[in-house]
Amino acid sequence: MSSTDVFLGIADAAYWVFQNTLEPIGEFFWMAVLILGFASFFYWMYRQWQFNKIAESDPNQLK
Asked: Contacts from 22-26 at CB under 8 Å and sequence distance 24+?
């Protein structure tokens, strides 16, 4: 068994995984990840806005 056989086996396994898992999922998974990412970003910005508002109203903050 040479290294070529090992690398071709890895390539065949990767190709099988792609055909049997990623192709049937289609675009749904990636769209869900994108939507979740945007929602998380907007939530993070909202929380940051709240924290900044609290920090501005507290005179005992180190700046």
From this structure: none
